[in-house]
Amino acid sequence: MSHSGPYILHPQLAEDTHPLALLGLCELRLMDDANYPWLVLVPRIADARELIDLDPDQRRALTDDIDTAARLLRDAFQPYKLNIAALGNMVEQLHIHVIGRERDDPAWPAPVWGRVAARPYTPEQLVTRIASLQAALQG
């Protein structure tokens, strides 16, 4: 795939998420929905819409970043299940959701999309959640 310009985060992703860290290939971001521990990985590749838009080395780096995000959620929250998905129906820029799920969460056992309204973090919750996740990444 030829890339037409620099990587730019899609405005909807910028609005719905908060930056956590830069990983090997991806921006790691926290979804602004306190209903679930929910991370979003956005590969820093211009115009990438599909996994197949990445070259083999980029796909391997993405897999490593997904592993990092999944282990971060597992270690921090001990969820019953981890959901990992790349849908892109609403935001076509390639991004991967890593969501910690519990059997008593608001959407269980269905997918999280469209089940209950997002519950944005309060400013205090946001500062605490970001700091704890960044510390765990460093740890």
UniProtKB/TrEMBL annotation:
Stretches assigned to the HIT domain: 39-108
Transmembrane segments: none
Molecular function GO labels: catalytic activity
Pfam families hit by this protein: HIT
Domain of life the protein comes from: Bacteria
Identification of the protein by name: HIT domain-containing protein
Organism per entry: Luteimonas chenhongjianii
